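Reopening closed ticket. The problem is back. First fold of the pair:
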Amino acid sequence: MTIINWRCVPRLTGTRFVQKIGDQALIGVIDRGSVVWRGSAGLLCRNRSMGILMQIAKNTVVTLTFELLDAQGNMIEKAESPIAYIHGGFHGIFPLVEKALNGKQAGDSCQVRLAPNDAFGEYDAKLVQVETRDKFPPDVTVGMQFEGRGEQSGHAVVYTVTDVAEDKVVVDGNHPLAGQTLNFSCTVTEVRVATGEEMEHGHVHGAHGHHH
């Protein structure tokens, strides 16, 4: 985060002043020896000696590392590099995790237990379909994925091939983790204000984000 127009002020509790951080104007209030900042979008941060730590709030970009484990503690996925999402209902992370992260800062961690309905949903046997093999490529194998449309919903569904017979192929439209209780553990590495372009597109640009 680039800080410009910095000016020294007396550290007196209750003193208010304006500070520009990037393209965001923040109002600072001295509180017990440090500065609490609030932006026009309600963003909060606190100046702690060497810099500014912004709190996670709506319309901030959150960068984090994470681990995803099953209910027995077995590792399912571990982020090899940080991921980033826009906080505040942009569907970039599980809603229950987003709720737990609200108000946290870089360096903070949290652990969230996700029931099936909080993660990938309950397993739906109706999403298992048996199709004729001629609908698929000649080299179709178990594990391949294809996009189709649900017969009842009409929505696009990603189907995974679970069995291949001589003239039939079994596909499953459930997420591989559907029906499972999961444990999500993460550590926040950075919090910043989302740009106008990111807000318009609904996803993060640049490092750890979406590349056009």
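Second fold of the pair, where the issue appears:
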Amino acid sequence: MLNNMRHKIGRLSFAFLLVVNTAIAANAPASATASAASVTDYDSQAVIIYKFAYSYVEWPQITLKDNVKSVQVCVFGNSPAFVKSMENVSAKIADKLKINIKTDAALEEIGSCNIAYVSHGRSDSKTIIAEAKKHSVLTVAPIDGFANDGGIIEFNFSDSGETGGVPTSTGNVTFKVSTKAATESNLKIATEALQSAKEVIK
């Protein structure tokens, strides 16, 4: 059933799914467009993380409660805008995927995480990556060079810039995937996700 669902999702445009899901998360009509005014880059990141957790990643061990997959997203660093977006997405898909969010996560807690979101500006991302690999944690960050440093998913922003040290964008969020890092973390990434990636690092 899961493979069939992945196949159906893979046949659709990832960008189209992103627009639909972010419109739902914002309580907007399905015909709404993903403009900077209605959908933030953090909304887009949250939706992509949801799709990976729900359909595109196989963990060695994952918790099922009432036949619903449950994952823990640990946020390393201060990113209230991302946390808010992740909470909004989580509330909309609770019947499909239970997302627990741990804010201000400490390194010694990483063993309890399924996904580690490393906020922009963290200077210890390489240390977090190294510890995450020991516990089969999916590492994600909006940090340039994150995938080359051993992270699994790196978010990139077209027409990007910075305001107060925080990445901003008027364009689309894209992502790189490191299958090398995923393998080192004992995680499997579905082919459909790789086909939607801006770059795959092997």
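Update: turned out to be a display glitch only; the data is intact. Residues 72 and 113 are 5 Å apart (CA to CA). The longest helix spans residues 41-56. Please close again.
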